[in-house]
Amino acid sequence: MSPRFTPKVVTANALLEGDVVYLTADDCWSRQHAEAELIEDEAHAQIRLLDAQAQRQVVVGAYLAEAKAGPRGPEPVHFREAFRTRGPSNYRHGKQEDPSHV
Amino acid sequence: MYKYTDFDEAFVRERVAQFSQQVARRIDGSLTEDEFRPLRLMNGLYLQLHAYMLRVAIPYGSLNSRQMRQLAYIADTWDKGYGHFTTRQNIQYNWPKLSDVPAMLAALADVQMHAIQTSGNTIRNVTADHFAGAAADEIDDPRPIAELLRQWSTDHPEFQFLPRKFKIAITGSPNDRAVTKAHDIGLRMVRNADGAAGFEVIVGGGLGRTPLIGHVVRAFLPQADLLPYVEAVLSVYNLLGRRDNKYKARIKITLHETGAAELTRMIEERFAELRVAYDGADQRLLAGIRAAFSRPVYKTAPTDAHYTAQVNDPDYRAWADTNLVAHRNADYAIVQVSLKAHGQTPGDATSGQMRVLADLAETFGHDELRISHEQNVILPQVHKGDLPAVHAALKAAGLATANIGLISDIIACPGMDYCSLATARSIPVAQEIALRFQELDLEHEIGPMKIKISGCINACGHHHVGHIGILGLDRAGVENYQITLGGDATETAAIGEKAGPGFSYDDVVPALERLIRAYLSLRLEPAETFLLAFRRLGPAPFRAALYPEERDRDAA
Using a CB-CB distance cutoff of 8 angstroms, which residues of chain A are in contact with residue B97? Predict the structure, then answer.
């Protein structure tokens, strides 16, 4: 593991809904950041990104976003990624509409 | 109002059919995203932070009641029951699903609307003075020219792959409400020494990364020469504009790299070639378009109800004072409907509100509605006798906020609540400013004030030309807000000056409050607006208010 690599998750938008999705360790796309695979190795991150980009009928614009380990799974680091886990701040639309998502 | 010809109708329908096929091919995997992206952008479909976004053109900001009702229907059927009106006189839907977009475009085509050229490196929706055709100060209605430009620029084969996007604004009034000096081409109607109406042509204005006030390339252009002249500007730009660097691709950069004199010479040279090639077809077309914009038949009726309500109803009087504008017919008024209720999202209207506005336009407003670049809705043709009824209906729909031109009438881009380009949020900053000054009850005492907020350097929120501009940035992973002072979007256009270091999200509203309190104590009289006070005093006393710690340090 590269000592300077900061952990990442693979994230994208779903092709049909545009909703934010995260690549899980078992190769599914989850709508929840906490269910993402937290990637701590740079080489593995590049492979997982390629895996994601190959799924061009499922997702759009896959990229690696910085993340950190949290008690319930990976958590976003940057505020942009934090907004993407919730939705806009002016209405309770997007992911925050779903009561199962806290 | 202009009605589509069979040609327009067939073109828009054909485009809907083409795009429907393209969406189907994207979903079944025949098209990759790289292949599909330019196609969806040609039809106004973006992929944003949380969802797709469909940007629908409202040509020169004009709508009728049927179109407004259809916008409400689309919001209810395929979105979340609201729409966001933008600084480019468009409406954006924030939550469409990809598979629903063809149906949305078909529903738009049913009311002669579309989303074509609301994105991409093309000539975008031509924007116009939102009081066009009604303003008391107007030389002539600019909308027929705007419609001519729309028809000419739509799918124009030479201008579908410009170096960068291209925005044209037009006004028929000497008082510029269309920000013509901050557009790629600004057209300002003026009279020459003989009293004939023509256009001052301004080129190379723009905000964004490199904010510049446009340069006058022609002080007076006869109206009949407008289209060949605009084509000459586009033609020269298409050739010279840089395609190697998108940050240097707008015509404002071309103008500065080429030199205003040389660019003007090239435009005039190309114009001389093009003018003879125009055989008058454009003028015949324009004559037909003009007929569609004939003035409504104004009614003659008592106006007493308005004056009585002004005396008897304080709410009505406050609303009339701020939200009404002089109409060319003394018995009429232009009604500005604020989409800036305190604490609400600037520019958002619910489907229910859209229907109320449509009903009012149909019943009391000669079926006319406008969307302003300031993200409000205008009923441009209301008889004064009907104003109390209009006010009552607006009030019931939460649309009677009496704050046009005041500190809570803020322009704000969608910012990082929606936009994938944004570097910080804009909307909550606007909401908090509006609520704070409402709480302080200072809004009316402060008087005319334009606050404009952008959530990134691209400046969709026009922050450079706000009296106070706020630019949201990402500074080392934290939202940071830079304040500019002294900007002006009118005929005396000016780019605001950076006040100093930015403020954190939590500190920006308190900083603004210090700034405003400083203004109130510095002004000579209530008639001296913030902008006038800034021009008289310069930035120093305002900077001192924004950065008291510096002042204290200097004093020590």
Answer: 16-18
